Amino acid sequence: MSWQAMAPAPPPSKAARPSGTPARLPLAKLPFVGLRRDGALGYWVMPTDSDVAVGLAAVGLGRTYAAWFLLYAEINGRDAARTLLDTIEREMPSRYPAVDRAFLREIAGRGFSQSAA
Question: Does an H or E element contain 69, and which?
Answer without folding.
Answer: helix 55-76
